[in-house]
Amino acid sequence: MGKLVLALLLVACAYGAARHFGYLGGRTGDIRIEGAPERGKALVADVDGYKVTYTVNGPAQETYMVFGGDVGGNSFAHGSFSGMELAAIRRIAKRYPDFHRCDSPGAPEAKRLAEHVLVVADRATMGKLQAAVKDAGSRERARGERLCASMQGQWLTLEQMEKGELVVTAEQYNRMIPAQATKQYFLYLQSLDARDCKDSI
Q1: Which of 132, 169, 171 is nearest to 149 (CA)?
Q2: Which candidate, 9, 15, 21, places its Cα nearest to that of 178?
Q3: Among 16-20, 113-117, 196-200, which stretch is predicted with the lowest mean pLDDT?
Q4: Per-residue pLDDT averaged across 22-40, rounded?
Q5: What stretch of H or E contains 196?
Q6: Domains of the chain by residue range
Q7: Do 72 and 25 touch, CB atoms closer than 8 A?
Q8: I need a labelling partner for 58 at 20 to 30 A (CA). Which of 112, 118, 153, 190 fits?
Q9: Taking phi first (over 0 means left), then psi (-120 to 50 degrees means alpha), and beta for anything else, what does residue 82 get?
């Protein structure tokens, strides 16, 4: 029990620090995925030696305005990104066309509508996510513009993470997440197409 508590504390501290700085990062180990992407079936991912098990919920097809992210992983997924769904973007853009700027009156609402998506994917797809996140950051810094990414895959539910004798269940993981944290989802990402948000809004 002591080892489990210590492990949970270490994972929680790492997660909290990553959220504070706006990314989850650090792991670049093996990426292996087992299981068919079918609703109700198990999908198992190897994240740098951690065996993470999910249940497939069903197809995902969303377009996000990408705010940031990382392909480093956090022992529960291969990487992550933060963003806002296209439908929410169109709603808020009617009132605050510049909502994506930090000094916009719409920025607080945009923050509330943002989602944090933890991604499971093969190495090639993670490379596309990495490129999209990098491009999004460059656009924002240079011209105040935003990048949108259309993604297809499967929504997942986390079941557990294990390594050796250590097992962390989804219930234990969820207790580590602060109540005020951005809404969080797990996605098995199978394809990604990035483009300027002006083409989508």
Answers
A1: 132
A2: 15
A3: 16-20
A4: 58
A5: strand 183-196
A6: 2-199
A7: yes
A8: 112
A9: beta
Sign of the Cα torsion 133, 46, 9, 113 reads positive
Cα dihedral 186→182→21→9 (10° resolution) = -70
What token pair was written down for 25? 């990062």
Check residue 79 and report its DSSP letter: E
Q: Where are the alpha helices (DSSP H) in 66-146?
A: 86-95, 107-113, 123-143
For 71, other C-beta atoms within 10 Å of its C-beta total: 27
State pLDDT tens for residues 109-141: 888 888 999 999 988 999 999 999 999 888 877
Is 200 strand, coil or helix?
coil
What is the distance between the alpha carbons of residues 52 and 60, in angstroms, rounded to a whole number?
20
**Nearest CA among 62, 56, 76 for reference residue 149:** 62
Please choose, from the candidates 26, 51, 189, the residue with its C-alpha nearest in 3D space to the C-alpha of residue 121: 189
User: Across all residues in the chain, what is the average pLDDT?
Assistant: 80
DSSP 13-47: HHHHHHHHHT--------EEEES---TT-EEEEEE
In whole angstroms, what is the distance from residue 80 CA to residue 170 CA?
A: 17
Rounded CA separation 90/92 (Å) = 6
